[in-house]
Design goal:
Oligo-1,6-glucosidase, domain 2; Immunoglobulin-like; 20 strands; five-stranded antiparallel β-sheet; 14 helices; 523 residues; TIM Barrel; alpha/beta
């Protein structure tokens, strides 16, 4: 039997570099700031970190408009610092994933500059160009992601043709129907794989398989961005297989972190079957994001249905799930739950005990909320500044940043700083550390089966099991105490509020509380 791939056992920590820690003094987080705080990640117990884009970019979309895939933007550092980050993370047992942006580039990328220079330029067909419609307007009715009233097309006055951009006009879409595009993007992967990265998060990767006919949206998706529903499996899956082959050609047999490289795709779709199709029975993506929890309310009954529905689709084809509560594109889960810390703690227990690979977003281990950002301070074209607020490392002053951060601080930055929470063993930070420690020590939690247990409304309960190792997780979103009898004797290993560790479970689950239970004989 082959060993379990590392990415099935891993907990992966997302860093939005601009907001993690500034070492240079310009107020923008950078690679040196990440290196300086790698010990925090090692102490917390995560297995890998994923960096949002660090490439050269005009920053129209804060790095997701890439102008050079094979260099580091001076805001963040340089290639030597990227190499140092990979080396120092590996020395701590932490793998490194980079954001890979395959669907589009910056309008300032040399590929697009050449494409725009002449209709005869060899790079012209690397992008999606079309003649105007009969009325002189855009070629079809597709709309842009950040402005549903704006077309996903911009007219190039020189040539009289429109180019496609599903996001900003500064982010022209590549045409993956052109073989040269696919080859060039594979070369980007190889460049970073040869520098030692352990894998990639592929941004909106489901968008690269476009029908060249570019048909108008169906009636039920009129005036919606294609990001949330575009799915052309016959065109997409062969491209994903190609990415998989390139990544699978590399491994770490000669390093301190042996194992295969991997790619996790941002498949921003709501249909579980479409997401699972991108795994392509082990020939496509290693993992694909599922945002069902991120889009769910604080409701145990909804969580139960979400988990049951997902496993009904994933398990028959051995597709390994991913779980996410927060990221750089959506309000933090504590903010979505009305700012209540107790709810954020319950959700953290859920995230780190489900069957699958959990992704943490930097700052959620501190219980951070979104920062209030006034209209005159707003920077992001998608209105996502609040969830990208800077991480407070210390109380007072600049809170561990060398410069004044580029965005406002989140609420309670002193009390929610890493230093303060690390000194408080009842803090959210210590809850995450205990959950990660429990997960690391338990084969059941890392890779075991999941069985939903009968429970009253407002309570979610499930058993995780791997051979002789067993755990039970009980989570309440109810407003009143609830009794939940369990077969056998159980003791409390971790509680979301930190109380009662090692005590017997008496069947009572209090409101907005989560418990990780171990058989009494094993406690």
């Amino acid at each position: 039997m082959s060993p379990t791939p590392w990415w099935r056992d891993a907990v992966i920590y997302q860093i939005y570099p601009r907001s993690f820690c500034d070492d240079s003094g310009d107020g923008v987080g950078d690679l040196a700031g990440i290196i300086r705080n790698l010990d925090h990640l090692a102490w917390l117990g995560v297995d890998a970190l994923w960096l949002s884009p660090i490439y050269r970019s005009p920053m129209a979309d804060f790095g997701y408009d890439v102008a050079d895939h094979c260099d580091v933007d001076p805001l963040f550092g340089d290639l030597a610092l990227a190499d140092q980050l990979i080396e120092e993370a590996h020395a701590r047992g932490i793998r490194v994933l980079l954001d890979f942006v395959p669907n589009h580039t910056s309008a300032e990328h040399p590929w697009f500059v050449a494409a725009r220079s002449s209709v005869d330029d060899p790079h012209r067909d690397w992008y999606v160009w079309r003649d105007p419609a009969a009325d002189g307007g855009p070629p079809n009715a597709w709309v842009a992601a950040f402005d549903r009233d704006a077309p996903a097309w911009t007219l190039d006055a020189e040539s009289g043709q429109y180019y496609l951009h599903l996001f900003l006009p500064e982010q022209p879409d590549l045409d993956w129907n052109h073989p040269a595009v696919e080859l060039a993007q594979h070369d980007v992967l190889r460049f970073w794989l040869e520098r030692g990265v352990d894998g990639f998060r592929a941004d909106v990767v489901h968008l690269i398989g476009k029908d060249p006919a570019l048909p108008d949206d169906p009636r039920d998706h009129a005036r919606e961005s294609r990001v949330g529903f575009h799915f052309e499996p016959d065109r997409l899956l062969p491209l994903l297989r190609g990415l998989r082959r390139t990544v699978d050609a590399y491994d770490h047999t000669d390093t301190a972190l042996p194992g295969e490289r991997m790619i996790v795709g941002e498949v921003n779709l709501a249909d579980d079957e479409q997401i699972v199709a991108c795994y392509d029975e082990g020939r496509g993506l290693h993992l694909a994001f599922n945002f069902a929890l991120l889009r769910s309310p604080f409701d145990a009954d909804v969580w139960r249905r979400t988990i049951a529905d997902l496993h009904a689709v994933y398990d028959p084809v051995d597709a390994w799930p991913t779980w996410v509560l927060s990221n750089h594109d959506e309000p933090r889960h504590r903010t979505r739950y009305g700012g209540r810390e107790s709810r954020a703690r319950v959700a953290a227990t859920l995230l780190l005990t489900l069957r699958g690979t959990p992704f943490l977003y930097a700052g959620e281990e501190l219980g951070l909320e979104d920062a209030p950002v006034d209209a005159d301070e707003a920077l992001d074209p998608g209105g996502r500044d609040g969830c990208r607020a800077p991480i407070p490392w210390q109380p007072g002053g600049r809170r561990g940043w060398a410069g004044i951060p580029w965005l406002p601080w989140p609420p309670d930055p002193d009390d929610r700083s890493v230093a303060v929470e690390r000194d408080d063993r009842d803090s959210v930070l210590w809850l995450y550390r205990r959950l990660l420690e429990a997960r690391r020590a338990s084969p059941a939690l890392r890779r075991g089966s999941l069985r939903l247990l009968d429970a009253p409304s407002g309570v979610l309960a499930y058993e995780r099991a791997c051979e002789e190792d067993r755990r039970v997780v009980v989570l309440s979103t109810a407003a009143e105490p609830v009794t939940l009898p369990l077969e056998g004797a159980w003791r409390l290993e971790v509680a979301s509020d930190g109380r009662g560790r090692g005590m017997p479970f008496d069947g009572l689950i209090e409101p907005e509380r989560a418990l990780l239970l171990v058989p009494a004989a094993d406690a």
